[in-house]
Amino acid sequence: MDVVTLGMAKADAGKKIDDATRAHAAILMDKLATGVEGGTLVFVGDSTFVDTITGTVVQTPLRIAQSLAAKYPALRVLFREWDDTSQTYPAITTVQAGVNSRSVSDGITIGASPTIESATVAFKPTDVGRAIAGTNIPAGARISAYISATKVTISANATAAGAGTSITVGPYILDVYNASRSGANASYPTTTVARFATMFPMTGIPSSFPDLIIIDHGHNSAGMTTEYRKVHLTLVRTLQDFFPRAGIINLAQSPRRASGDSYNNDYANDLVRARVVKALSASEGLGLVNALDTFLANPDYATQWLVSDGLHPNAAGYSVIFDLLWSAFRTSAKNTPVAVVPRESKMFIPAKAFDALTGIPAYSVVNGQAGAWGFATDLDQSVVASCTPPSHWQTMDVYVVWTTALGYASGSNRTVTWRPSTRRQMIGPSDLQLENSVSVTGSWIVGAESTQNATLLGTWSTYAKLIMTDQLARKPYSATDYQFGWGNLLKIERLGLGSALDNNPDTVYMLGVLLVRAS
């Protein structure tokens, strides 16, 4: 790549970072600028956040960590990289040791406890976020809570009990986690609860919650186009649920070669997925670093900024991506930190909101906790409720939440079959049409049967069964009635004797229905 082209790309990087993106980055940068706080930065992505080019460029997350270390020399900067084989962060790399430490030799540790004591160290409330090291203290630990001048809790349990141990209270820590894996797509971090908890080990330590999360996904969802929004949104929504104060910046990924790449020849779909990430960032108020358009603005990007496989950037391409990302950090001081309040993504309709429709389901309080509709095995029992999701929902997934009084051994055959149905319902005309009327016609749209086996041993075990996927959340009844507000009627039916697959002889109790925004 010629020097002029690279220079133009760098000069343009700062111009491509909008105020919303800077505001997300400022959540972290504002803390670090105080000089009396640390922070946590998490990268979640695929190979483009993992790749290294020996002797030329380090991976982008590590390079960002090094740049932050240079900007804040007093900080201790620790870098961790996810290992897919062990499903852990196996090592801590000290990018920068930092300054400002004090040591004592009268420390007291308690085995398998995060409490640390010292009569002489003189802990202060502002020590929260500082590194702490010493005998029986795990590597990379930080002070997570101030209790008194002689006692604090730390971010990990002590490995053993001890008295008269050495303790060093060190600099404030910037923890950088590269939670990325080559070949992963956006669903990888949330595939299992165990993986998410390990990938985001700070979930139980509020003082260590991420301040900023940068997401780099899309390439590895080959074949997907607009439906990729649901995959990406699920990751964003999960992160917002756990870390509502964190800034989130999406990376609209660099494009692959227009034809003949070594992977899926997925150029056109890739463009749509990156466009979906841009649109999602706009609708959800998230930050965006737009590598896609920066690459496309260079007509020779495929030869100048990609390696021979036609997908992965070369050293010059990674430099362009780094410059774009670093511009979000570097220019964030101009903006007030803003963490977007997550838009409502779940809606629970309790059993009490349903009415009996067919058969003889019975409503009662079960297990001394909540009301539920009891469905015996009789044929054709159903309940119905109004279901009006928030207006920003496009599609949704629907789960029926149910329980049984009895427990069943693992491997038992106690299946229950549910069937949902929907129809349109007018929920009220707009203010401009209060004197108008409209005829609501139509019949039930019957969904597919969904079977779930009760296999939990405990009594009153609760189950959640996905019964509808990507259901249209809201739409006008017809093109001519778009002024009216329309919702859904949702019917939930236990098939009982009406299905050969429903062989549970016991009454099952529906606690309600959970709606989850899909897009």
TrEMBL record:
Q: The organism sits in which domain of life?
A: Bacteria
Q: Which InterPro entries match?
A: SGNH_hydro, SGNH_hydro_sf
Domain named SGNH hydrolase-type esterase: residues: 175-319
Which Pfam families does the entry mention?
Lipase_GDSL_2
What name appears for this protein in its UniProt entry? SGNH hydrolase-type esterase domain-containing protein
